[in-house]
Protein: UDP-glucose 6-dehydrogenase
Amino acid sequence: MNVTVFGTGYVGLVQAAVLAEAGHRVACIDIDQEKIDRLKQGQIPIFEPGLAPLVKRNHESGNLIFSTSAAEGVAHGDLIFIAVGTPPDEDGSADLRYVLTVARTIAEHMEGKKYIINKSTVPVGTADKVREEVTRTLRERNALNLEFDVISNPEFLKEGSAVADCMKPDRIIIGTSENASEQKMRQLYAPFNRNHDKVIVMDVRSAELAKYAANCMLATKISFMNEMAVIADKVGADIEAVRQGIGSDPRIGYHFIYPGIGYGGSCFPKDVQALKTTATQLGIEPKVLNAVEERNHSQKHYLLDKVVQRYGDDLAGKTFALWGLAFKPNTDDMREAPARVLMEELWRRGARVQAFDPEAMEECQRIYGARPDLQLCGTKESALTNAEALIIATEWQQFKAIDVAAVTSGLNTPVIFDGRNLYDPLQVAESGIEYHCVGRPE
Ligand code: UGA
Structure:
């Protein structure tokens, strides 16, 4: 099938590459000329495992083309994805400017029936707004005879495993009331819908809400566990034992109940905030979502509170090693990363930071630039040199086995603050390292 994807961000690019791999002919359209030029040369703007070879292969085969020409994009695809950004507005609601601009562009150039698919995470009611925008533009063109449908097809991929998630989706939600649209979408996703039917068809508004409900439910699980961890700390229980104890109940499950120092990334914080705003605008007090957000905010300070308890509030003259800058492993994304709160709070108290991350060093440099209280180190070992203590903010695989020799010889005094509960506290204690973690007896 001929498909067009507007927006070459995370969602758009991954979706486009995966659809091309399945044999569809996909045109990726973006207004950023430099980005498109780089994509044509096989340069991927984000770090995402498996994406670069996929893009390269399909670009070379001709299944994946890149262009800045909206007209070309609209002419190419019967199915047109809108996968542009929806940054938060000042009031926390999603800014639909880019989504509606694409809607208008499609209507300006379309000459036959188009299936317009909302892939961006957008508030309930957006499909109707897209429909209105397209209708308005067609009216201006005197072309109301041209048919179209607006379908909601939310994305559920995770950064770091985006390609795999897209290749093997748990579910394919299709929000439409038109039979023809359902059939088109089923045909599009047929290569990914092999063993059992993963397609769930519903009305547009339910599909839009399902996306927010999924992310907010996951954020709720995390904030709940983080609160349990704080309680565990105070009552002398071990949250890791509690986690296993409750996860064994299939109604709760083992997924997404890992306590830590708060969720980050571009999705959970933004989506919780956006759904809160939607609820508030409708006169509903979002009590659960308020609590989820509040817990996440304080959790990001939790490890720092332990540092302050140990060293006092004035950290001037002290250097801390920081392992992990990305908001989670396998990405270079530092949006809303707990590591940022940690670093900024350490700086505020006068401390220096020696940081290492396997992928996010460039991103850190881009965000903070050169500053005397930040040293980006080439290896995790060199970050330890002459530091007061080690702080772990991201659970990268290479941090998971404790290197007692490196920690004891590198640090001034062997102290670890672990925001991801990577190590066994007893084992660490036996090796003579002072260990502070989240919700476990220390
Ligand atoms: C999330 C959802 O998991 C995807 O299903 C969704 O499609 C995506 O948002 C989106 O809306 O685009 P993502 O933000 O890439 O994906 O990352 P997650 O793997 O969900 O992690 C989010 C945060 O939760 C991370 O900071 C992670 O460290 C934290 N987390 C996750 C925990 O603290 N504990 C857990 O048990 C799991």
